[in-house]
Amino acid sequence: MTPESYQLDATDRRILAAMDQDPRIPIMMLAQRLGLARGTVQSRLEKLAASGALRPNSSRVTPAALGRGVAASVSAELDQSMLDEAIAALSEIPEVLECFAPAGDTDLLIRVVASDPDDLYRVSEVIRFCPGITRTSTTMFLREVIPYRTTGLLSGRD
User: How far is Cα 23 from Cα 16, in angstroms, rounded to an integer?
Assistant: First the structure.
């Protein structure tokens, strides 16, 4: 089952919304707060984890806390026949947080972090020299104005 194919139901959303408010809440207390059986909460969380619907816990750590306070987007054009090689090489770069294949002129859109502008230049160069990448363009983010969030989506408003 892929994260895209797993559909959260109302109970899943309630569990996740409560955990979003208090991520360290013990399962027993969470179950009591929501009026659910402990086994129900436990099995739901296990199913969510197994389906890939939950991000790894490490995604809660901010890059700035790891000394990487500079964030940027790198647009990459590539030789389409080397897509797999490019992605494999990009996945080996620790500063690459995520990579998307967007519609439009850009082949890959890569979100990266660095310790300072000089380090961002280094990261951009490492990306540029990945197999199959023919051209890059880097845009540094000045500040985050809306952090990554899913809390509003958990409310069930579709």
Answer: 9
Cα Rg of the chain (Å, integer)? 19
Q: What is the mean pLDDT of residues 130-150?
A: 95
Map the chain to HEC letters: CCCCCCCCCHHHHHHHHHHHHCCCCCHHHHHHHHCCCHHHHHHHHHHHHHHCCCCCHHHHCCHHHHCCCEEEEEEEEECHHHHHHHHHHHCCCCCEEEEECCCCCCCEEEEEEECCHHHHHHHHHHHHCCCCEEEEEEEEECCCCCCCCCHHHHCCCC
pLDDT digit string, tens, across residues 3-57: 566 788 999 999 999 998 888 899 999 999 999 999 999 999 999 999 988 888 8
User: How far is 115 from 151, CA to CA, in rounded Å?
Assistant: 29
Under 8 Å between Cβ of 127 and 73: no
